[in-house]
Amino acid sequence: xxxxxxxxxxxxxxxxxxxxxxxxxxxxxxxxxxxxxxxxxxxxxxxxxxxxxxxxxxxxxxxxxxxxxxxxxxxxxxxxxxxxxxxxxxxxxxxxxxxxxxxxxxxxxxxxxxxxxxxxxxxxxxxxxxxxxxxxxxxxxxxxxxxxxxxxxxxxxxxxxxxxxxxxxxxxxxxxxxxxxxxxxxxxxxxxxxxxxxxxxxxxxxxxxxxxxxxxxxxxxxxxxxxxxxxxxxxxxxxxxxxxxxxx
Length: 248
Hints:
This protein is of the alpha/beta class.
């Protein structure tokens, strides 16, 4: 995947962005960020998985990888791990193919990070060690349980759209839609602000939701309570995977 955006910078160096795909990944977690990076000059996008088999997303849609892990470029500007359904998260956390690829790729990538529950896959591969990180709002407690093993610091009482650990060149995003904000911030830091602004304009990203209910600090308490109840099983499954990881 390449783009043809008119450059606002004189840097024509190819910048490879690698998205790690797995069954039950959430569409917007990677397609939102893909759309942003596709509108930044000289970014080349790669959707990679262990095989070229179709990926079934959490929305029960199918997408095709652009290559396998063996096709990963030697130089990676951004390694991006999206979130997904608990089945995909748990399976990928303990799949040696994902652990090995993410571990090796993150060691050479300029920037490495996740959005939403992709943080658990990245953590299991050692990619968030000693970092300040965030994840989907209802799973902040589960991520905080990895502090002793991996040194991950989590603020359970705030819900940032994204966090940047500039010292370690790590990033993490909140829930699904935050992948767009995160990608725009990375474009700003890696290229320049004008390129980030141009990408935002091209995709007409000017959010004006009909409600301010995007996280527990905004949503009415009764809505948040209902959402938590609806996610009880999801949270329990993520917790089970986290405890398994801790006890390895």
